[in-house]
Design brief:
Layout (H helix, E strand, L loop, with lengths): L5 E8 L10 E2 L4 E2 L11 E8 L17 E7 L8 E7 L5 E2 L17 E8 L7 E2 L15 E5 L14 E6 L11 E6 L1
Antiparallel strand pairs: 1-8, 1-9, 2-4, 2-8, 3-7, 4-5, 5-6, 9-10, 10-11, 11-12
Amino acid sequence: MRMSKAIGIRAKKADGAYDLGASKFFGTPTVPEAWGEDFYDTDLFFCQIRLADIATLDTENRLPHTGYLYVFLDTAEGPYQLKATVRYSPDEPCLAIDAFNSETVGYEQYTEAWLMEFYPVGEDVEGTRLFGVPSDWPFEEPHPSLLLQYDPLDSEMGFLDSLDGFLYLFFGADTADFGAVTLREEYS
């Protein structure tokens, strides 16, 4: 089986003022103006990726190299039944939604931004990354196509740190259909 190259993600807590359009976990999402009324009280802003930040590392062109990719998590069913909404915008965002997570019950503490740094990694390395082979994947072969692997023990963010395993986002059959991305939590 041919495996894809992976892009590691290192998260560092933003110290003071930062570019609101930066790739990040949590903090203030910056979105297109038209999305301003699209969110619910149970939505958690998980991350935004400025796709230009990964363009040189995404040699297989798995994602567009312009615009932004966003991940929001629906928390309505509780912390172990999260559902992902992945959205893409080809445009620069113009609306910053301050304190987005402060009203999401059980997740109020995730208002500080953790800036992403991207670097090349092996396709099966553990940790938080884009693409590659899902770590500790015990199920079907071939594995689903991995968009994002989040390792809660990989940083000091504290998000899902009781999960000894990974949170995976998998592409659907059509990797350009971000509405078909699925979320799965897997314990080691």
